[in-house]
Amino acid sequence: MLEDKNQNQNKTSLAQLGEFGLIDHITKNFKIQHKSTLKGIGDDAAVLDFQSKKAVLSTDLLIEGVHFDLSYMPLKHLGYKAVVVNLSDVCAMNATPTQITVSIAVSNRFPLEAIEELYAGIHKACEFYKVDLVGGDTTSSTTGLMISVTAVGEVEEDQLLYRSGAKDNDLLVLTGDIGAAYMGLQVLEREKQVFLVNPQNQPDLEMYSYIIERQLKPEARTDVKELLEKMDIKPTSMIDVSDGISSEIMHLCKASKVGCNLYEDKLPLDPQFINVCEEFNIDSTTIAINGGEDYELLFTIKMEDFDKIKGNPHFSIIGHMTPESEGMHLITRENTKIALKARGWNALEE
Ligand code: ADP
Ligand code: MG
Predict the structure, then answer these.
(1) Distance from the alpha carbon of residue 137 to the mean position of ligand 1, in angstroms
(2) What is the reported pLDDT for 198?
């Protein structure tokens, strides 16, 4: 799992291929799947045609040492995750992702084989989520690796969901479970420290498999649009969970001009996540609402849709919206009201 810096023999240097050789090499296995892609890689720009639908577009930039650490993030996973985080943003608009572009800056520290690994992950994500790679840019960097993905999606105009549509009394709903990706990172950071002291040590991470997978191989909730359509539910607002729900709730409330009550006892937590929080002696609620990178969807629905969604295993009703003047609060298991903060919230404060 951890990078072995001594295995650089028998590797192909990027200089041997040159920029154009590299681009041809890494993009040759990608196939176009969408009618809306009129022109993909190979010209000065891609050409897309969404006919009567609207196009949504989202982009992210990931920097080595800031957003990822290659000592425990395999390059294949990094490629996959870089795509997924952008598809998640497209899903949060209630759109269907259709195309991506990928731009990379690499230093000569990386052999061709490393870039192949990165693109194997990107390829896997393109196949799994059925999106077309339609372009990008390739350049050199003096130090680390940078990767920027832009995702495009399509949606009928009346299906678009913004952060700004929530109303007082709407129910707050979350897909999946939260907090696991953050605790997965804590385990990986701890194993990295152990590895630095004793490189012979092969960690047994079996008991952490779910939370590590949530960190290294998150998925975008491309299934939610259809699930909600089948249930005949149209949310009033939506956002994806990249920074932790505390911060995302604040975005929804601010854009919609409402307040919110979030209920501690309604938070969907995986048992493995709860066990690891106990092992690390940290409060699971604090992590669940402030830990990021879960890439679940958080949305509001009208109160009258309660019967359509209650008991559905994909969704948890975790709170409700209030008038803006009431502010944003967590209602604890002991029924005390604590003001939500974007970051650094602590169960022991106040
Ligand atoms: P330009 O000089 O116009 O920037 P490039 O020579 O950089 O063109 O790119 C040639 C083609 O390859 C373009 O279609 C571009 O979108 C695509 N491309 C370049 N780099 C990448 C990459 N890292 N991943 C995917 N496509 C790429
Ligand atoms: Mg270029």
Answers:
(1) 5
(2) 83
